[in-house]
Amino acid sequence: MNQPTPTNRGKSIRHGDFDTLCDALDYAALCETGLNFFDGRARLKESLTYKNLRIKSQALAKRLVPFAAKNSRIGLAAVTTPEFAIIFMACQYAGLVPAPLPLPVTLGGRNSYERQLQRLADTGDFHALFCPESMQQIMGSALNDKAIPVMSFEDLEKLPDGNELRPFDKDDLCYIQYSSGSSSSPKGIIGTQASVSANCHAITKFGMEMDDNDRGTSWLPLYHDMGLIGFMLAPIMSQMTVDYIDPQDFTRRPITWLQLINDHKSTFSFSPTFGYELCVRRWRNDRNLDLSSWKAAGIGGDMVRPEPLTEFSTLFSKMGFSEGTFKPSYGLAETTLAATFSPPGQGLLKHTIDMERYERTSEAIEANEITNIEHKRTFVACGLVLPGHEIEIRDFDGNVLDGNKVGKICLRGPSVSPGYFRNTQATEASFSSDGWLDTGDLGYWLDNQLVVTGRFKDLILWHGRNIWPQDIEWAAQAAAPHRIGRACSFAMGGVGDQKEIMLLLECRTRDQKLLDEIYSSVMTAIRLEVGVPVRLQLVPKSTMVITSSGKLSRARVKAKFLNGEIIDIQADSPVSIIGNETAL
Q1: What pLDDT, on the 0 to 100 scale, is given for residue 548?
Q2: 35, 2 in Cβ contact below 8 A?
Q3: Could you count the other beta carbons within 10 Å of the beta carbon of residue 122?
Q4: Which fold has domain 21-38+46-252?
Q5: Taking each helix axis from N to C terminus, what angle separates 255-264 and 273-282, rounded to the nearest 10 degrees?
Q6: With contact defined as beta carbons under 8 Å apart, do 27 and 239 qualify?
Q7: Which end of the chain, N or C, is more open, meaning fewer C-beta atoms within 10 Å of its C-beta?
Q8: Nearest to 546 by CA among 77, 181, 177, 113
């Protein structure tokens, strides 16, 4: 009977001290550990030891060597299955560059997905696309005007046999990962063997302080850096067993994630804040869980919001979960995955600042007893910089800031990507000649820990104030939490102080009386807590555009709104904007 792979390696742990991913799997194959794939009810579907992963990957690699020249790009549908891991590693042994591709369900429909695939194909110059047989039609339809073969996983088994491997060496590429927020111009982030090895070494030895007793559990999509690097490549680099459920299964049954941690005594698992929030919403008190083995509940991929995390720890504390288990982090795909981790046991190090002062001076001054409650905002520290890496907070003239001054987060170190694939303009805009990456994020120092305040491009400048759209969105959601979904705020029209601030709020009701109550309570909350004039529109659930990693794409929601594609459920008709005028 198929059994999940054990936690115990059977050999001494090595923390990613390998030149290449192939070297790492060669060592992991000597261990007893591997990858396990479960269904939405926590039942094992298939297990894959690292030994068998190596055998199957090398066998396929021998067929891929004559199929494509070295460094050819292969688009690979990132399904959470053994086949993805096998093909990804086969590419490594064959000297081909895999580019994990998102799946249709995350992109809002077939037409949207086909457009996204077309843009990715234009950018990636793929030699071929590999996917499950069930996806061949949609991928073929998207690429019907391009000479790119779309091959099923089963087709790969029919390729002529070869007799040699062509593994990457330490100076070669490893993969190309497309930014989850990309829309009209996807950017392919280059991962090298050196950057992957450096980041996995830093993560497993210093960030997570991994030992022989650690086991991972993940529902994260494998086309996103937190899923691909954090829960496939880093485990291979450290010989750790991982238990997976498909992201769709997690969305339908999030408690299965916790059930797997309970069943297999997992110690590591990560999620954006919304994953913990979803577990709180779906909990039915219908089972007994023991989460005491969970020693690092990582938070990454989006802004760390303390309120839903505190709700999670309060609810599951009776099952052995401690708030000290939370492990906030900061990173981005351009740094392979991670740049900072909070120290073990710290949990949520909160810092409440005076937002009125911050909005006017760009200083994060701690709130006190005389600070108006509506001007208080709590951030969470994202931890210490990984050894061997540097972070600087800079102003917009490039001067280095210290203390509580907010500025651009810039990062340098061996984990940083060399740039974007065949996109010199974007590379030169983000990467300096001396190795510094401008992350596009803003933050400040809390002692020696990094605090991230948001994306610079999302910042709304209004009457001399720096307004964060998250503040508007979170205030709206807090005003009527049981009847609303996602919120999205953005500025539009005009220049300078002539901008109009828009707020779209998903509602799970069409009852006009309830909608009027929501509108009134939200507008009152915005006036009191944010103090800026906002134009509120209540919209149907599932209106927002979400990236492949689960983040809100404000730019794409704004474009959708301006194109008249969003319904006002109080007016019950689409609204479009022409100049500064509203047209029904």
Answers
A1: 57
A2: no
A3: 12
A4: Rossmann fold (3.40.50)
A5: 100
A6: yes
A7: N
A8: 181
Strands 34-38 and 242-245, sheet pairing: parallel
Beta partners for residue 506, in sequence order: 539
C-beta of residue 303 within 8 angstroms of C-beta of residue 252: no
How far apart, in Å, are the Cα atoms of 376 and each of 356, 364, 370, 495?
8, 11, 11, 28
Residue 541 C-alpha from the chain's centroid: 22
What pLDDT, in 10s, does the model give residues 227-262? Answer: 999 999 999 999 999 999 999 999 999 999 999 999
b/e 491-514 (16+ beta carbons within 10 angstroms → b)? beeeeeeebebbbbbbbeeeeeee
Architecture of the domain delimited by 460-583 = 2-Layer Sandwich (3.30)
Contact (Cβ atoms closer than 8 angstroms) between residue 156 and residue 54: no
d(CA 289, CA 300): 24
Dist. CA 472–CA 502, nearest whole Å: 10
Which of 316, 328, 307, 278 has its CA nearest to residue 486?
A: 278
Name the strand (E) or helix (H) holding 87: helix 82-94
CA 234 to CA 18: how far, in whole Å?
A: 11
Q: Are strands 460-462 and 437-446 parallel, antiparallel or unpaired?
A: unpaired
Which tens digits make up the pLDDT trace of 382-419?
A: 999 999 999 999 998 999 998 899 999 999 999 999 99
φ, ψ (nearest 5 deg) of residue 448 = -110, 20
Is it true that 21-38+46-252 and 255-457 share their CATH fold? yes
Residue 395, Cβ neighbours under 10 Å: how many? 13
CATH superfamily of the domain spanning 255-457: ANL, N-terminal domain (3.40.50.12780)
pLDDT tens, 506-548?
998 988 999 999 999 999 888 887 778 899 999 998 898 877 5
Q: What count of residues does the chain have? A: 584
The domain limits of the chain are: 21-38+46-252, 255-457, 460-583
Cβ atoms within 10 Å of 196's Cβ, excluding its own = 26
Specify burial of residue 518 (Cβ count, 10 A radius: 0-12, 13-18, 19+).
buried
CA distance 67 to 73: 12
From the list 437, 434, 474, 436, the residue with the least C-alpha distance to 454 is 474
46 φ/ψ angles, rounded to the nearest 5 degrees? -160, 145
